[in-house]
Amino acid sequence: MAGHSKWANIKHKKAAADIRRSNIWTRLIKEITVAARLGGSDPRLNPRLRLAIDKATDANIPKNNVYKAIQRGVGYIESLNYEEIRYEGYGLSGVAIIVDTITDNRARTVAEVRHTFSKHSGNLGTDGSVLFLFHHTGHFLFSPGMSEDKLIEAALEADADDVTTNGDGSVEIVCPPNNFSHVKAMLEARGFKAKFSGVIMKPQVEIEFTGNDAIKLQNLLSALENLSDVQEVYTNAAIIDR
User: Does the domain at residues 6-17+133-203 carry the CATH identifier 2.40.50.100?
Assistant: First the structure.
């Protein structure tokens, strides 16, 4: 058993992110374009592209938009020259933050990220300054009330790495990033569809924030997530509503 209010915390964080991300289609189209450029246009041979297409489907992006994004990625349609850049920094009390971006203008993006950290009492760090505090992993979170024994059995059959039952009854499964699609398909074939899933940077240890500190930190995270070039923001902070 682990975690104090994992389900409530993640549910709150995901709901807030969905509200803020009015440009979610733009972000996913960028991800599809880059994934196709790096790994080819066949989602059966390109796990990253397959995952991006799944996200686009969940976000109700039309198939034609997805097709055009893939065509841009492999060079059949003219496209902006996107590049991926990861930034690392610190928030309140030195909490670790990772900001993943896709941009066609490196100078603009770093200026916006640095300004946002500074505006909210944070600091932009150097490469590797906080990355060691996270694991790159496939991650599934199932809501409380799920049949734990059957879920564990399904996870083992799918070759997942670990299953954790949190104190609030939610269940987490982790797996290697390159095995995410396989584990997802195996779990869903057994009738287990995660409420939240993806390939993420998972903190090794989380630091709880409450009260005014939680509000200040959430303001920084929200501001970073609202930047047009930002794809994902990860932190080892657990913001608790109390």
Answer: no
Check pLDDT > 60 for residue 39: yes
Contact 72, 79 (CB under 8 A): yes
83-132+205-237 classified as CATH 3.40.109.10: no
Span 42-89, pLDDT tens digits: 999 999 999 999 989 988 999 999 999 999 999 988 878 899 999 999
Cα 168 from Cα 204, distance rounded (Å): 19
Distance between CA atoms of residues 87 and 125, nearest Å: 7
Q: Which residues, 6 or more positions from 146, have their beta carbon under 8 angstroms from its beta carbon?
A: 170, 171, 192
Distance CA 204, CA 121 (A): 24
Beta-ladder partners of 199: 138
